[in-house]
Amino acid sequence: CVLCARTDDCPEKYGEKRTYVEYKLTVHYYCLLMSSGIWQRGEEDEGVYGFLIKDIIKEVKRASRLKCNICKKKGASIGCVAPKCKRSYHFPCGIQKECIFQFMEDFRSYCWEHKPVQNFADKESGGTSQCTICLDLVEQLPVYNVLKSPCCKNAWFHRECLQYQALSAGIFFFRCSVCNNKDKFQKEMLRMGIHIPEKDASWELEENAYQDLLQCYQHCDIKRCLCKKGRDYNEPDSKWEIKRCQYCGSRGTHLACSYMKSWEQNWECMECRSIFAKSGNYSKQKKRSLATCEKTDGPPCLLEEPSPKCPRQSPGSQRSFLLQSSKIMCQNNLSPCSPIELPASNRVTVSLPPLMPSRNLSLRKKHLRQQIREVSNILKELKLQVNKKTTTLNINAKNIWNSSLKGFRQRSFSPTNTIEIKFTNCKNRPKTDTSAASKHHFFQLLMLHLQNSSLFEGSPAKNLSLDFQAVKENLYFEAGKMIAVSLVHGGPSPGFFSKTLFNCLVYGPENVKPALEDVADVDVAQTIKMIKYAKSLSSLESTIYNCYEFLAAAGCLRPITALHDKNMLVNDILIHHVIKRVKSPLESFRQGLETLGVLEKMQMHPDVFSSILCHKPERLSAETICDLFTIHSSSDVNEVEGADFWMGYLQDVESGESVVTLEDILLFATGCSSIPPIGFDPEPTIKFLHISYPVGNRLLNCLELPITKTYEKFKKKMEFTIRNTLRVERE
């Protein structure tokens, strides 16, 4: 090297060594960077790293007149920057003498007497610790070869280990190996002479380093694959597209081999399903794979699905989506990949009128269903906090609020306990029902009471009201707590929040602008309208004069000099009446909603929670009920004919050709007249059995349906049983 006269080629110590034959020049990169009399005057691709050749030659001539204070030889190009210090040295000599070279800003160099040091507290030095990079012992002493992390109390490093890590990680990935701090850690290490190159990490620069990660698993692992082109065949946007396990990604299935539709996203392999089942965290997916079927005897077949690339049907065309969207789980002799082909004469096709008259309506419903799925998954995640310890609430349905308040305030109540409901009849005799149906019914009554209580005002969307007695008794907190518990424990959502109330809870009241529709008080609303729609300055002043006392009490008096000042005045009144006036109730209500982490999830996912807190559930449809229930079948049952009768009956009910409603069917099977935001546990199922009349097993959410020869008999039995069962219950 022309600057240090060493032949060493050690990039870690001295930087890259380059030789330029045409100039008879060899130089170390670090020697060049730290030389005191040279600057980068060229571009990166000019000369040597931007140092011009003529400047390097000048620097060599300058250094040839300076003697190194360490090795006593000529050519010392680096000088100490401390004031009045005249020491000069070669770069390798400086390393040997423990000088500090700062690879930043002006590339300063400090000799062994003036070098920066780290300050240790007396109690920190003297012991031994473990280098968090090489894991060897390091003495906690303020010496050159030991460095302490500025961001961690007990993180110590060898200087050599840190330098190797910095060279490997580069400026983008070099950080504290204990706390992952980057800015503070890099600043201190640069001050102490660690060179952090401005490059990407070495592992990022390796050719094809991540090639294995770019290989998607493309193999069907179902026990009996139906694809004639083999298990590795994958055709996107068709029934032969391969879906990977959503958890491990190392198992796959053709859509057709697991009876999946092209729009279904979730599928899990047997291994992951068993792991989740053993851990107790597994909840069955609504659209589930048939890969769990063990028996594979039976004729191979396939339930076909139209390609998503097919032309869109016109609104007047006939459809049979119920038949296509039904879910049939084989349990006995049917193969998981067995379609059921029947002669055309035996097949019942349910032709449905168009349910989505426009594309926008279809997209809106699809978006809403996606939000419902998201909020269900979030609530199921929160429900993992609930343990098996039981808390019993004695509830009087005729005095739902007081009995609920007493139950929620009892010492043994905890939101993380499993809730059991005991309804008392008119004779005050306990009537126990531990099923989810009674719990849902309780929360349904409670949400209805809250909607009509004095805690809220407005119609139909409600904001918090100001009830001083409720504030005194802390009822707003209890109301928020009850809503949070209802959502997580399988109850209904309130569905009556105004957008303003929801935004106050999620974004904070200071970031919300209320509207005139949020004012429930008729007199206040009329006053605001008179101010808002004043057409002249004189009429505005007259209105303000007439309601002077109200404006003074609200703290909204302001000088009015022009007609447009009315807009600011209206805004002040709205903020006072809708937000500031109920500041205390709002804060208590927010604290109640923090129960079980519900408010935190609302703030993380405002869009999906808005769909259930600000809107009532959509009216049930035949398609919704059909998708909700999974059909279980056995070897001695013609499940296709039974499914046809079932779906035909749903269509008749939806079109009004029945004495029962879809809500009645759901209530008969599950005890709930609407689908709770968290979904059902266990998921609703259907069994076709050789029984006389349908049976609703609410403990298992199972609807047992009779096998009949004709559709007319099936419909007659369904209507007779459901209508009379619900009538008796209501009486």
TrEMBL record:
<dbReference type="Pfam" id="PF13771">
    <property type="entry name" value="zf-HC5HC2H"/>
</dbReference>
<feature type="domain" description="PHD-type">
    <location>
        <begin position="1"/>
        <end position="115"/>
    </location>
</feature>
<dbReference type="InterPro" id="IPR042013">
    <property type="entry name" value="PHF7/G2E3_ePHD"/>
</dbReference>
<keyword id="KW-0539">Nucleus</keyword>
<dbReference type="Pfam" id="PF00632">
    <property type="entry name" value="HECT"/>
</dbReference>
<dbReference type="GO" id="GO:0004842">
    <property type="term" value="F:ubiquitin-protein transferase activity"/>
</dbReference>
<keyword id="KW-0808">Transferase</keyword>
<dbReference type="InterPro" id="IPR051188">
    <property type="entry name" value="PHD-type_Zinc_Finger"/>
</dbReference>
<dbReference type="GO" id="GO:0016874">
    <property type="term" value="F:ligase activity"/>
</dbReference>
<protein>
    <submittedName>
        <fullName>G2E3 ligase</fullName>
    </submittedName>
</protein>
<keyword id="KW-0862">Zinc</keyword>
<keyword id="KW-0436">Ligase</keyword>
<dbReference type="InterPro" id="IPR013083">
    <property type="entry name" value="Znf_RING/FYVE/PHD"/>
</dbReference>
<comment type="pathway">
    <text>Protein modification; protein ubiquitination.</text>
</comment>
<dbReference type="Pfam" id="PF26054">
    <property type="entry name" value="PHD_G2E3"/>
</dbReference>
<dbReference type="InterPro" id="IPR000569">
    <property type="entry name" value="HECT_dom"/>
</dbReference>
<keyword id="KW-0479">Metal-binding</keyword>
<keyword id="KW-0833">Ubl conjugation pathway</keyword>
<dbReference type="InterPro" id="IPR035983">
    <property type="entry name" value="Hect_E3_ubiquitin_ligase"/>
</dbReference>
<dbReference type="InterPro" id="IPR001965">
    <property type="entry name" value="Znf_PHD"/>
</dbReference>
<dbReference type="InterPro" id="IPR011011">
    <property type="entry name" value="Znf_FYVE_PHD"/>
</dbReference>
<dbReference type="InterPro" id="IPR034732">
    <property type="entry name" value="EPHD"/>
</dbReference>
<dbReference type="GO" id="GO:0008270">
    <property type="term" value="F:zinc ion binding"/>
</dbReference>
<dbReference type="InterPro" id="IPR059102">
    <property type="entry name" value="PHD_PHF7/G2E3-like"/>
</dbReference>
<dbReference type="GO" id="GO:0005634">
    <property type="term" value="C:nucleus"/>
</dbReference>
<keyword id="KW-0863">Zinc-finger</keyword>
